[in-house]
């Protein structure tokens, strides 16, 4: 359950600002202990609208925030990558439909781990494209016939980069995760059909915590699957309120934020899977969503890729410890 209050603030729409703020206090989840924290979510602003112009989107997919606070968005329907300031001002774009360098065919995810590199999951082109922070193309990462069959990937769905510069690729065609070393040589595959309880059925977005534990949204089993740095299966989070988990982010390594595509809500959980609260619902108003496709957290700020509303919504997170 939640309480809603309305204040004046600024909300941006594709470089144009309008005044509006929505502050929401998330109450403790029904049945939760009073010793658990109360999560507060405050709407700050939104940027983007449907279109092909700079700063606009056609079904935005993955997004990432670099250490400098720049926001990178995989503009899936427009087959491009866009870069914004942390406040939603447009900076640059690269792409267009195709298979050459600086082109994409349905880019689904982006990760910008260190302020220098930007990696894009170019889904239909079966490759990962690496750019610098100014969106200059550096190289293409793919696995062709020179790589042994068991260590190839296709239809890359999501990406994560570890503290040691290892690249984790969610391989949608083979329903598994491929790990590459810092030279982009495949070293480990895991979570495929012979992984027992750790098998992925329809993997989606992923995220790494500060201990390099990998969290993967499994959209078919409706679970969050957890693996260690070496690909060993650790545990899963299974809760009816997860619905179809379609985006995930780690906040302070104390709270897991998951997008529920079924209810268009944000779900806040502990690492042990306890529900702290939830926020949102279906709609086009600020604070409502239509298909959450990805999440990113930097500091206390949460960015939400609101796919069918063709925008990025931005919120401030806070919580009270008991």
Outline the fold blueprint.
Layout: E1 2-13, E2 16-26, E3 38-47, E4 60-65, E5 71-75, E6 80-84, E7 90-95, E8 107-111, E9 117-122, E10 127-132, E11 137-141, E12 156-161, E13 167-171, E14 176-180, E15 186-190, E16 203-208, E17 214-218, E18 223-227, E19 233-238, E20 245-251, E21 255-260, E22 265-269, E23 275-280, E24 292-298, E25 301-306, E26 311-320
Antiparallel strand pairs: 1-2, 2-3, 3-26, 4-5, 5-6, 6-7, 8-9, 9-10, 10-11, 12-13, 13-14, 14-15, 16-17, 17-18, 18-19, 20-21, 21-22, 22-23, 24-25, 25-26
**Mean pLDDT, rounded to whole units?**
89
Range of helix content: under 10%
In the CATH hierarchy, the third-tier topology is known as: Neuraminidase
What does the largest sheet look like? 6 strands, antiparallel
What ranges have pLDDT less than 50 throughout 5 or more consecutive residues? Answer: 1-32
Q: Kindly, what is the distance between the CA atoms of the first and last residues, rounded to a whole number of angstroms?
A: 19 Å
CATH architecture verdict = 6 Propeller
CATH class: Mainly Beta
In percent terms, what proportion of residues is strand? Answer: over 45%
CATH-wise, what's the superfamily? Answer: TolB, C-terminal domain
**Overall spatial form:** globular
User: Number of folding domains?
Assistant: 1
Give, in order, the helices and strands: EEEEEEEEEEEEEEEEEEEEEEEEEE
Q: Give, in spatial order, the strands making up the sheet with the most strands.
A: 1-2-3-26-25-24
Number of helices: 0
Class computed from helices, strands and strand pairing: mainly beta
């Amino acid at each position: 359950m939640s309480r809603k209050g309305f204040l004046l603030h600024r909300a941006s729409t594709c470089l144009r600002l309008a005044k509006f703020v929505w502050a929401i206090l998330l109450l403790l989840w029904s049945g939760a202990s009073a010793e658990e924290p109360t999560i507060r979510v405050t709407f700050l602003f939104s940027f983007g609208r449907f279109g092909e112009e700079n700063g606009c989107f056609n079904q935005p997919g993955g997004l990432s925030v670099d250490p400098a606070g720049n926001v990178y968005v995989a503009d899936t329907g427009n087959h491009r990558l866009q870069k914004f300031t942390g406040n939603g001002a447009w900076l640059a774009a690269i792409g267009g439909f195709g298979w050459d360098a600086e082109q994409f065919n349905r880019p689904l995810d982006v990760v910008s781990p260190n302020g220098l590199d930007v990696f894009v999951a170019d889904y239909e082109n079966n490759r990962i494209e690496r750019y610098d922070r100014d969106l200059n193309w550096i190289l293409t990462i793919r696995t062709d016939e020179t790589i042994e069959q068991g260590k190839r990937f296709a239809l890359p769905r999501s990406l994560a980069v570890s503290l040691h510069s290892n690249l984790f690729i969610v391989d949608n065609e083979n329903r598994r995760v491929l790990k590459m070393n810092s030279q982009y040589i495949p070293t480990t595959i895991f979570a495929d059909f012979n992984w027992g309880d750790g098998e992925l059925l329809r993997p989606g977005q992923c995220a790494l915590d500060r201990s390099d534990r990998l969290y993967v949204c499994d959209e078919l089993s409706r679970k969050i699957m957890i693996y260690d740095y070496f690909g060993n299966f650790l545990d899963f989070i299974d809760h009816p309120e997860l619905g179809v988990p379609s985006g995930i982010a780690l906040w302070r390594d104390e709270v897991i934020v998951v997008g529920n595509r079924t209810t268009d809500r944000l779900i806040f959980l502990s690492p042990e899977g306890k529900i702290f609260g939830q926020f949102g619902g279906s709609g086009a108003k600020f604070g409502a969503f239509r298909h959450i496709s990805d999440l990113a957290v930097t500091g206390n700020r949460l960015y939400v890729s609101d796919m069918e509303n063709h925008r990025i919504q931005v919120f401030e997170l806070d919580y009270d410890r008991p």
